[in-house]
Fold this protein.
Amino acid sequence: MAAEERIDTIVIGGGQSGLSMSYHLRNADVDHVVLERFRLGERWRSERWDSLRFQFPNRYVRLPGFEYRGTAPEEFSDAPGIVDVIERYARHINAPVRSGINVSSVQRIGDAFSVQTNSFPYRANNVIVATGPYQKTLIPPVARFLPASVAQLTASSYTNGDVLPDGVVLVVGAGGSGVQIAEDLMADGREVVLSVSNHRRTPRRYRGRDVMDWFEELGFTHQPVAARPRGENAPLLTGVNGGYEVDLRRLVAGGATLVGRLEGVDGTKLTFGDRLFADMAEAEDAYRESVERLEAALIERRLVDGPAPPPPEPPGPMPDEPPLAMDLVDARIGSVIRATGYGVDFSWIHCGEYDDEGYPVQSKGVSTVPGLYFLGLYFLTSARSSFFWGVGDDAESIVGHMTTKTP
């Protein structure tokens, strides 16, 4: 049996979260390594479709001690561009990354952690789990009843329409991934049926600025949360084609067929829910409430003059009355893309407490086990916790706790 390598702190995950943590650990003179099971920024390399663009302008592609210095601050980066930033950042901070190290188990033994990997074991005083919020694809139970004759992909395995067989494509899920994949397929000339459930809309730009500029300046994204919001979808935003308002009516104008939530599969027969129009109406309500909240804050702080701008014209018509059932053969559906969201999987960590969705019980990233920390999860401390440019704040806070052992 290989002897354990002893090190003060182990960071698990070599994406933007793990590297942000490495930056602050190095500044605090904490001996550490970053363990990455594949390559730096692996999900940006192998779990993104070709046409994907970062949701926010390039000036938000920044990390602690590494500001954006490119020549296109208002453009939106593709996935290879994000990988390039991550690689350059790792070199810039001289991060002690060990790639190809898959952590299979973490457990507390005595006053330290035993970390088992595919190479050799480690023993550490602190473990920081920075594996991100996209650890496993959430697959709806009805998916297992789809016939084998229909190709099934997840959003993370889709690259472009060429990987799919001929025929109509059913995209299940109208979140950011589902809508953008549907638009990507339509741009490639594919026929698309989009299965829609609850979703939220927000402006892409408001009063001449990207909406995130306002959210950051007004402190909306910095507001601390007492608990992670449940059942609340992230607002739809896209950086494709220079960034624009995400609206399902755009897909209708492009020829997509919209149906309700996929609720059943019986042989080749699909059944859908009847809430399509209700879900779209609620998304419009969320859009209006977002604008009203933003406008009220801008007026209160005297950041704008003049009346609020009128709402944008709809990019297309409302869909026709959707069918509640559809036959895969009659509809010529040859493939299904499941864009139904992601969850976490911490089953390999044999210490700490977790809620019924598998999220760790923590406060500001500090778990209930001394020395075990979490970073990069949704609303760990605020909306910025999982943002590319915001995760460094939580990393700095965690390092402060580690080095002072105070809340």
